[in-house]
Write a structure and sequence with these properties.
The protein is α/β, with parallel strands linked by helices and 287 residues long. It is 34% helix and 13% strand. The protein contains eight helices and seven strands, in the order E-H-E-E-H-E-H-E-H-E-H-H-H-E-H. The protein has a seven-stranded parallel sheet, sandwiched between helices. Helix 1 packs across helix 7. The two termini are 25 Å apart.
Amino acid sequence: MDLAGRTVVVTGGTRGVGAGITRAFEQAGAQVVVCARRPPEIPLGKAEFVPLDLRDPAAVRAFFDALPRLDVLVNNAGGAPYRPLAEADAERHARVIELNLTAPLTASLAARAHLRRSRGSIVMIGSVSGSRPSPGSAAYGAAKAGLENLARSMAVEWAPEIRVNTLVVGMVRTELAHLHYGGEDGLAAVARTVPLGRLARPGDVGAAAVFLASDAAAYISGASLLVHGGGERPAFLDAATANKDQPSRAQPSADQDQPSRAQPSADQDQPPKAQPSADQDHQGASR
């Protein structure tokens, strides 16, 4: 897809998923500006880096006011460490929500005037953690749920000048994946839980972001695009002892020969076990 002549801002675009998004837009011909608290450790081609703390509203507004043009905003910055709810106070969890929900809102508001002039678009980088339990990163999951809803409302309020969409990202193999999944054995075991058989690459997320920002998605707004390799296999399927011999063959209903007797749900006595956060491998304040 050709995005030559367009200016793209990627927040937190210096490493992990953000770096993959930055590279994808560069490959599409766009001029990319990356903002984050710390500079990239690995050069990102021709992308311009601007140091910025996205939790500072005045600094965010000044950054966008100084831009001569803007066509696409990718709200990628965010993340959180593994932290069970009871192991921190509410103020600490609120900082996670500030980074993952309030900061994207701040950036979007600051970018709105530019995007209205260019009839541009916003791409929110969401997470599957926002649509299922996220033990160990509950505040993060709550923020990502809010971000997806914010995008839908923003798409309605700011139409038709600005399109707004969300990428709902699953597990991604980044340079920090080992911190959450372990070494190669752990990564391989986690990858086997994904229907497509592998974790996403940062470039997979980047390619999806380029699509949503391109003319090919001109009639797509308020949408949530899943980038999760098919999702997560329900845990009860592995725990259950029935239907093991022929998993692909349709099985008779459990109560076909007892029509008057209620049968237990297939997973009532096998509650789903906790799954690792779907994108913990790319969580971090500078993502």
